[in-house]
Amino acid sequence: MVRYLLPAIVPFAREAAVLRSFVLATSLLGLVSASALADSLGPDQIRRIDADVTAILDRTRAPSAVVAVVRNDRIVFRKAYGFRDSERRLAADVGSLYEIGSITKQFTAAAIVQLRDEGKLALDDKLSNFLPDAPHADEVTLRQLLSHTSGLPEYLDGPDIEEAATRPATFAQLMARIAGKPLVFAPGSKMAYNNTGYILLGRVVEVVSHRSYRDYVRTHLLDRAGMKRTFTVADESRLAGMAIGYQVRQGTLQRAPTIHDSFGWAAGNLVSTVDDLASWSTALARGKIVNKKSYEEMTTPAPVSEGTSDYGLGLFVDSVRDQPRIGHTGGSFGFTTADEFFPKQNLRVIAFTNGSSDPEPGEMITNAIFDDLFPEIAAAARKAASGENPEITTQTRALFEELQRGSGDYSTLGGKLAAKMKNGLAGRLADRFSPFGSPTRFIYKGARSEGNLHWHDYLIEFGPGSQLKFSIGLDEAAKIASISYG
């Protein structure tokens, strides 16, 4: 799920910076009882987890990871791997601190919902009720900001983003980055992951509560959840056990810059431990932060007039391995994290890493651990559908290879799609697909017809925890007229 604080390339077939689709399909194996997972992990399960986490760190070159598995509100497995400080060879431990990036959005959303429950605002209020001078304030509601359905331009866009994000910024300066830009789409029509909305929501918290955002979060959220080891990026220099963020540049692992606290702010400025995040997630789900009805609202996908949404209020609501999943990932310079809950299995998996890459190692680890704990479900999700046309599969494989290279003759494509490839789409898709590496499995998942296109769906796997849904749409001339992925 990119669900990065910092922007990533988006799938052209969806107006969203997410790589998940809202599919709550159910298989018989999906109806696994929560009792199928013991209250402690067995040695074989731990060996599988160790092997997969190590493989993912090697593949992504992330120096370290800390993972936790939670069942029945209790951590049943917790382990650190690698180095939180690669240069000084300081080993990570289970109490190491990592930036959690966009997982911060859960906290901002919970603050707004709390204020709503206290009668201090309504989610369908216009933004202009609180911030009349904000861009497009009369056109968008708080609910649309919370659910990424506002259509606001992205404040993190721009060629200067890496430099700008490391400098202090006022709220006015952040808003100046989108001032004068039109809405990307009509509010409420689509879902597109958007950091701007959460910056605006942070300011709404301040206006309504008459407290600083930082103070509100500490008093009403962190303290209430019992989180003693959660801070912001502004505190990093004084925190014992703080991990160093890394990224690969020009083939070498380098220390990443740190996003400034005031720049990421309510969209992604928190630093935490896996224990604290587990405490938060339990408190939020158990009614200690917002009431049960409000939590249900947070975990219900927002309605949109076009397509579908896989986001509620501060939380993604989607699926993996055909199993329902609720959670969020986070990414900033040098860090990726994931906090994912699987309600059918009553299982939460949390993963922190200090390496930033796409695909995200944090989410890859949570997916791999789920597979390690429920191999039967993973095997069922990998089962190929009947009716595969080997010729079309070979054609699709060849196209995917071309897209990863960013070059090809595109002879199998329809004229409009081929023209888009030659006009820049090929380069963008190469940036998106090449980091996945060579597929380890190419699985046919069925065919369907929509409009005048006949679609063939595939699941492509690239190693532990890494997969991509990829589809081709054939026109009446058997040319590939459209592709989609997610």
TrEMBL record:
Biological source species: Dokdonella ginsengisoli
Protein name: Serine hydrolase domain-containing protein
EC assignment: 3.-.-.-
Enzyme class: hydrolase
Record keywords, A-Z: Hydrolase
Beta-lactamase-related domain mapped to chain residues: 50-365
GO MF, any single term: hydrolase activity
PANTHER family with a match to the protein in the record: BETA-LACTAMASE-RELATED DOMAIN-CONTAINING PROTEIN, D-ALANYL-D-ALANINE-CARBOXYPEPTIDASE/ENDOPEPTIDASE AMPH
Range of residues in the leader sequence: none
